[in-house]
Structures are given as structure tokens and as C-alpha cells.
Amino acid sequence: MRHRRLSETQSEPLWYKDAIIYELHVRAFYDSNGDGIGDFQGLIQKLPYLRDLGVTALWLLPFYPSPLRDDGYDIADYRSVHPDYGTLHDCKVFVQKAHAYGLKVITELVVNHTSDQHPWFQAARRARPGSRKRNYYVWSDTDTKYAGTRVIFVDTEKSNGPGTRWPGPIIGIVFSRINPI
Question: What phi, psi does 68 have (nearest 5°)?
């Protein structure tokens, strides 16, 4: 099988129509250092194997820093890599080497999920009710208001926001409302 280099595919805007996409979770794919957790170095080692499978694109599930309460979708920082998986440099090297093998890399950017550790959530927690930052999330004074919705986490800390009453838990809902800044 002939493997196309990335430079040959850059001019193909509809490359995805014929792509063979392999979805993988960095954490579960290949452990390079024996700690029981997959990492970017392990992915780099397995690039020839993935290419030889006939894969043309790799779809990476979230690999950002996270408390891992929602399998990594509760993202604490979109600009970094979870330390268990390596460093941002490791990730960049992985992308460069994947491209050298002619593989595209797709990542999930899930902006409607954040961790309670994310700066957006922390700012929203401190903001006044009804403020722009507060409206980044869906809040409730009761855990029954959104009973039919999958709740990612219950915020058990009291909000320090001015004018905030605290009769019960504040709920972060899966499809949190993100307003453009």
C-alpha cells in the first residue's frame, strides 16, 4: 500500500470523505513507561502500526488536564496536556511524527464541558447572578430542576459570588451555556 505524505493531502479539502479514522483515548492506547497509563510517547511508538492498519486519521479523545470525573471531558485547561499522558512538547512531537507518516490528527475540543477547576468555572462561581460570566453555566438552587438531564457534577462548594444565596447544591449541566465574549 502506498502511503501519502501530508503535503499531498493538504490540497484536498474533502479528505475526510475517504478517510479511515481511528478513534483512540491516549490514556488507554499504549503505555510507554510502565505506569499503567497510555501516553503520547506510546502513541509515537505505535504510529507505524497505525499507518500499516490503513488508518489515515487519528481522532484523539480529550487529553487535557482534568480531574477525570467524566472520563476527561471535564476539562480544566484546554491549552495543556494531562500530566499522566506526557507534556505539551510530547503532544507536538506526536503530531509532527503523525504528519510525517501521512496521518491527520483530529482532537476533540469540547467547550461545553469544563471542570469545576477550569478558570471559566471559577470566574463564573465568583460572579454576580445574572452577570455575563455567571451565564456561562446553568445554575440551580435545587438538584431536581434538571432531573431529566445528565449532571456532570454537583458543585459542593459554596459560591463566593456576591448576592448568591446558598440553599443547596449548584449544578453544572452537561450542555452548559457558553456565551460569546
Answer: 65, 35
| Residue listed under C-alpha cell 509515537 | 44
- Could you read off the pLDDT of 65-112 as tens digits, one per residue? 988 888 888 888 889 999 999 999 999 999 999 999 999 999 987 777
The amino acid at residue 12 is E
In this predicted model, what pLDDT tens digit does every residue of 26-49 receive, in sequence order? 999 999 999 999 999 999 999 999
Q: Which pTM value belongs to this model?
A: 0.70
Q: Cα–Cα–Cα angle for 26, 27, 30, nearest 5°?
A: 70
Residues 178, 75: contact at Cβ < 8 Å? no
List CB contacts of 80: < 8 A, sequence separation 6 or more: 64, 65, 88
Whose cell is 499522558? That residue is 85
